Amino acid sequence: MVSPILLIAIPLFMAFSVPIWGLISKKLPKLVPFFTFAITTAILVSLLPTLFSGQQGFNLTSVTIAGIKPPYGINLTFGPASAFFALIIQLVALAASLYLFEYEPPEPAEKFYMLFILVVLGATGMVLTGDIFNMFVFLEITSISSYALTAINKTGHSAEAGFKYLLLGSLGSTLFLLGIALLYGSLRTLNMAQLSLYIHQGHLDPKVLMAVVVLFIVGLGVEAELLPLNGWVPDAYEAAPIPVVSILSGVVAKAGLYALARVLYTIIGIETGVLNLLLIFGILTLLSGELSALRQKDIRRLLAYSSIGQMGLIILALGGGNSPMAMVGGLFQAFNHAIAKGLMFLALGIMAAGFNKWDMESLAGVGKAKPYTTFLFTIGLLSTLGLPLFSGFWSKFLIIFGLVHSGQVVYAALALIGSVIEVVYFARLLGYLYGKDPSEELLNSTLESKKGFALLGMTFLAAFVILIGVYPDFITNFILGGTAELVYKSFYISSILGGI
Amino acid sequence: MIRRLFVLVLLIIIGYFLGTAMASIPFGAEKVDVGPYRSVGNYYVDNTVQETGGVNAVTSIVVLYRGFDTLGEVTVLFLAATGLAAILALTRERRKLKKEKPSLIMRVGTDYLFPAAIVLGSYVFLHGHLTPGGGFPGGVIIASGFLMLFLAQWRYKVDELGLKIIESLAGMTYVTIGLIGLFKLGTFLGNFLGKGTPGALLSAGIIPVIYIVIGIKVGSEMTGLLQNLRETTENE
Lengths: 500, 236
What we know:
A: 74% helix
């Protein structure tokens, strides 16, 4: 009886049970996130073989809840796109939860672990659900736990960052809800497949459609780090605890991205010209992120802006959906960015452990003080740059060629310029990390060998970066299937409503 | 000044677009089926009693048809309480606030109203499948009883550990009910209990069970939330 619903039910049960474990022993809650994600990852992996059978080479299962068939009840969908994003989320969460073994969370610790499980659960729900209101509920779970986790350090700075995120995030969710209300008011259904069918058949007033498109892009753009809505990102990444930051960039941003792709591709449909909007938003986000990263001294802020730039690149690639190649590159890049950025943030946490200074000057020479951690950090960095033999190479290559292929040469050129800027600041960062001698203070900080479990989690992520760089076929099936699932909406609709 | 004017113009443009979009959706009109499927609203009105055994259609929608959303909403409330407790912990400054003693009317009135609030709250969530109400309002009514105690008796404190455990157990029970449905019927949150006679107290399968769990969970969460907020502002 293994069902995708367990990916949501088990973490929820475990999150509620944290205080009970705390009664037995004060040390147990620390282990709960890791065991939860180990179980869910195992369940997800055991479900993966069911995806690639049947005539099309992949299939999409609809899981009903409470035995009520869609569109009258809520359903989960388990197809290549959902499974792919769920896999990204689980891998990053697993590595980050190993890091928690070595991390002393801010008090009250139990609450921290609950929030940590719930943010991952919310993101998993967002990528699995087949009902748009249910997606909103999971968006709320994801975002509310992220606000709390951002502010949990309880310094003035973290309170400011959390409040900023809270304001933008709740504005975003409200607008998303308004968009859902407009859709429900016109079409009287919340099931995504049925909405997609009705919009395709032209039951929706074009004026309402336009309002819905704008509301959805603005509403989901907060989590997906789109340009005018990403003001919270640098502050939050600077103020939140490091394992949380890796979750924010690897899990929350990816769930927002999936939601954006799902509503625009499946529900609205790309024939309506939404792709041009994505291209413009994407390139602006990309260039502004990369340009701002150039000026940063604090490494966390630098990585935050680089994260914005990468999200821009992915959105740009999704905007090139007329050419499947760009879309494939975009999904691939989403995987690479989550793994590489997650790895870099966790490694940064160890590099600054017991030292707690995050600017380039203070961390100069860390390559000599903590060689293995810095080496892992460098793997993530080189993959982000898109060097051959690292996973990031394939995705950047596909995106640029896909954009050229679909006739968007100007965007391809601008994306290349973005990549060049990226090389400039990352090369300078590497120069600091390796080129200088470490300070006394840095040499005396916590030894990396004392953080074994964290290093294990990071090695696991780094292994994925190299494995997929050398042998990309490992995930190609998911990406091709995921692209097909998103682009061919008739497949999605018939897989869910077909049986009725 | 120019900035304000710019914002004003922007708001007018956004308002105009949203307004025209809203105007094309008829308000209060008969809910017509749009396409080949029945609209969900009409479907629920026609089928609730036969399919769920609950006579309160709203409850059946909340707990069964869209039960997964409700599990999510319970989680959202839990998160709000947890997040607040996490952020407010340790920031409790010792501040002397000027306070007036609760009046005699307040103290005596609370003695009588507190049990009434608890009974009413329990009634509301126990009868959720029969009459308007349910777990969320029931839980809030119970919490309001505790709010009265907080107002009338300064030193009154609810045992935080107890609240935490009740909250956890209620949440775990909810998920477990869902999982029993998954193992018995093959569908999460499936209605594995008999539907009974519509209108009877013991009817509608798992709906009353879930509403009791939600009532207890919401009650303990809101009480904890109120206690948390009180302690941050008035510490003696």
